[in-house]
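Worked example

This section walks through a single chain of length 432. The input is the sequence exactly as stored; nothing has been trimmed or padded.
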Amino acid sequence: MDSSIVNRIFFTILALAVYRVGVHVSVPGVDPSAVASLFSGHKGGVLGIFDTFSGGALAQFSVFALGIMPYISASIIMQLLSASVPTLEALKKEGASGRKKISQYSKILTLILCIVQGYGLTTWLSSSSGASGESVVIGLNSLIPFKILAITTLTAGSFFLMWVGEQITEKGIGNGSSLIIFTGIASSVPRGVMSFYELLVNGELALALGIVALLIFTAVLIGVVLMETAQRRLPIQYSQRTAGPGVGNTPSSHLPLKINFSGVIPPIFASSLLLFPSTLAQFMDSSVLKNLQDSLNPTGVIYNILFVILIVFFSFFYMEVVFNPNEVAENLKKYGGFVPGVRSGKATADYIKKVMFRIGVVGAAYLSIISVMPVVLMQTFNIPFYFGGTSLLILVGVALDTAQQIQTAMMSSKYDSVLKGGKIRSRRVEFR
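Given that input, the structure is written out below as tokens.
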């Protein structure tokens, strides 16, 4: 393997190690043991889900408690707005300067989200106590109030993670923000394996049921990998080019359309929207919000029905605002490409739109099944499943993307070494 690729992988591992060390550094003014006992009663609720995405940082109320999710949420929101708001859409078409401006807007929105979430968390934490009644906030002999200090620390931690993610993307391997989330979720894998092993050893889980659980998990994992790499290849031919010297038939190509076109965005948006009332109920004393929180229990039937409906909605909504069949058809027409048996222009756009709708149905059904399956297995068959569907999608998606980038970098390095090692003779025609 080329030394430059090794250095990039080493840099990525080192940056992720810094993130994992920071997870264990608590915010000044809190008692880590009291916070841990407080969060032990919220493992299955909304805070437990947020803690999974933060890699356990929220349960320790560390400097990285907010994680990188505020930046991810802001980026997704700006991506959707840039495809639907004319002003942002015009900025996007300006090239590098426009994208830089949109990136600045994303960071401003990230700051707002960090302050709002940080205020909610510190307010709830200030009024809470540990499982044995001990105070979570121990206070500081400082001129700065605890809330201001905690909000500032949490916001700075989230922005530091955003910077680490950018450094990984630029100097390391893979997408930095995605790898940070991946590392946080993957950090719970050893704990899940140990819990599963203890259930088997203590006799709380029958051996036969444990084998069935492993087989189901393996089958789901294989299914996710296959669906994440699956494509609908739309055949394309070009009329303005020939296949070779003396050959009259047109060359063929294909337009790759991912089956899961929207990725993990629909489950993230759907879960965020459904968990919003529960989040408010954690921080506000309202009987209406408390009743709504009880109705929207992540393991309840109502929650999962609404979850599926929102996943389907966001799948088609994301596809509608991001993918433009008219633009694709126009580009094909411009370069002499066409779908066999379909006229260029509007007919091609309508055909692509119909194909995308069919893909969207399959993709939305796949996301819905994967997102709801863990809850069904745990509630109906009492089979332990230590990952939510969204977490599993993120783990597989990021792993596949990173492996592909490493493979691409290795191939590029191999070609560069071949070009550098060989001498290319120029074929000049001499006139005498």
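What to look for: The chain has two domains: 1-187+394-432, 204-387.
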